[in-house]
TrEMBL record:
Record's bilayer topology term: Multi-pass membrane protein
Keyword Phosphoprotein listed: no
InterPro entries: AA/rel_permease1, APC_superfamily
Superkingdom in the source lineage: Bacteria
Species assigned in the record: Geobacillus thermodenitrificans
Name the record gives this protein: Amino acid permease
Transmembrane segment boundaries: 45-64, 97-121, 141-161, 173-194, 223-242, 254-276, 291-322, 351-372, 378-403, 415-435, 441-459
Main location: membrane
Protein keywords: Cell membrane, Membrane, Transmembrane, Transmembrane helix
């Protein structure tokens, strides 16, 4: 057996669930309650769930049909154009770049959420006491301590992963199993405490930044973009396809992980709205803890906060693993800087891991001047937009395979795969349009992609050298 193929079905499923049910489960109830009415939230979940299910089926299908193209959905960008062409190299690199940026930005959302839940045990993390004043900048004690804790967590995780991908995957599995059991227990408790009077009218109005009422469709658009954050990570098994024991496990783990996560997300987000009044919910930095405290008192808050810490530590492991794997696999395909191919003796992409975490460290500086909630919202929009284009690319590539018949020995199966690919493509386009409607958000997304252009000459040179070697050996 290839020493690199060490991840089985359960570890792959745990990576999907662990990465999907990360920071979003703790903070999204607040974001969704602010974005839409309960009816808008329910429609957003249904639409997003159906769209992401189609996308997950695309991921699983491509992992089986194109097993040589591993490393994430962005890797298919180069396959949309003639092999070795400038368009192929450029699209592959830019897609991989944006996806990588989204990964390490998303890590910060998880790490800052962990610091938020630590404040349940250590209230000093929310202290407004002034530590330093420099001109218009004021450093508060809570922000400083949050920054220190986030930094320590990032680099402790770094050291753990350097010891081996398989070991880190098993730790993530243990943390994921604990949190899945805990969240199902939360759902059972919240079901008994759910109060229709607290959730209010299902079509309660929501307003935009100018105070104008939002239509139901507008609310669904807002909530769907936030809800999509919950599904980021559904491609986790696919990213690690090159390390999977069996390629069929990649598809099975993707679907199983999505369904488990979907039940947890929908159950918790709706139930929390029926436990905490909206004004309290949208002001909360830890809505799940506040909800359980409202049901069974402070002891429940401590228990759930502890569960949150276990969950977020597991998610941090999973996402940092993913962040290092994405550019490493892209470099193996000739779509990223060659330096990212470096490994240590345990076959961990150590250079990729180091650069990903140094970049994440820069984002962690946002905790110095922002509240936990503000930092979370900031990186959610950056990271989500960075994922949208690769999701669209994977769907379009599946559509291309269906239309050309490549990898299909007969017509059987093409029609079903084609319908799924069309739905996933339409869904991805809709979310891209909805997600970039705000000019500030659109410009942030463009800036993220444009920032990679300075490295493109290195990638192009390496790709051309690889193509020349292949021609000589042919």
């Amino acid at each position: 057996m290839n020493n690199n193929r060490q991840l089985g079905f359960w570890v792959l499923t745990a990576l999907v669930v662990g990465n999907m049910v990360g920071s979003g489960i703790f903070m999204l109830p607040r974001s969704l309650a602010e974005a839409a009415s309960p009816l808008g939230v329910m429609f957003a979940w249904l639409l997003t769930g159906a769209g992401v299910l189609a996308t997950a089926l695309v991921f699983g299908n491509l992992a089986i049909r194109k097993p040589n193209l591993s490393g994430g959905p962005q890797i298919y960008a180069k396959e949309l154009f003639p092999k070795g062409s400038n368009l192929s190299i450029l699209s592959g690199f830019m897609s991989s770049w944006g996806y990588w940026v989204g990964n390490f930005a998303g890590n910060v959302a998880i790490i800052t959420t962990l610091a938020s839940y630590l404040s349940t045990f250590f209230p000093v993390l929310t202290s407004d006491k002034t530590v330093l004043v420099m001109g218009s900048f004021t450093l508060k004690l809570g922000n400083l301590l949050t920054f220190i804790i986030c930094t320590v967590l990032l680099w402790v995780t770094h050291v753990i992963i350097l010891q081996g991908v398989e070991g880190a995957g098993k730790l993530n599995f243990a943390a994921t199993a604990a949190k899945v059991l805990g969240f199902f227990l939360f759902i059972v408790i919240a079901l008994f405490a759910f109060d229709k009077a607290v959730i209010g009218p299902l079509d309660a109005p929501r307003y935009d930044g100018n105070g104008q009422p939002l239509s139901l469709l507008g609310q669904i658009n807002n909530a769907a973009l936030s809800a999509l954050w919950a599904f980021i990570g559904v491609e986790s098994a696919m990213v690690f396809a090159a390390r999977a024991r069996k390629q069929a496990d990649v598809k099975r783990a993707t679907i199983a992980g999505l369904l488990i996560s979907l039940v947890i997300y929908i159950g918790i987000s709706i139930l929390v709205m029926g436990v905490l009044p909206q004004d309290k919910l949208i002001q909360s930095d830890k809505p799940l803890v506040d909800a359980i405290v409202a049901i069974i008192g402070p002891i429940g808050g401590y228990v759930l906060a502890g569960l949150g810490l276990i969950s977020l530590i597991g998610s941090t492991l999973g996402w940092i693993l993913l962040s290092a794997e994405v550019p490493y696999q892209a470099a193996k395909q000739g779509m990223f800087m060659p330096a990212f191919l470096r490994e240590n003796k345990r076959r961990v992409p150590n250079f990729s891991l180091l650069l990903s975490n140094l970049a994440a460290q820069l984002f962690i500086f946002s905790t110095i001047s922002n509240s936990i909630a503000a930092a979370f919202d900031f990186v959610i929009y950056i990271a989500t937009l960075a994922y949208l284009v690769p999701y669209l690319i994977a769907s379009v590539f599946q559509l291309k395979l269906v239309l050309t018949g490549e990898t299909y020995e007969a017509a059987r199966g093409r029609l079903g795969d084609g319908i799924i690919a069309v739905f996933a493509t339409v869904y991805s386009i809709w979310v891209v349009i909805a997600g970039t409607a705000d000019m500030k958000t659109f410009l942030l997304g463009v800036a993220l992609l444009a920032s990679g252009v300075i490295f493109y000459p290195q990638v192009k040179k390496a790709a051309q050298q690889t193509n020349e070697k292949e021609k000589l050996s042919a």
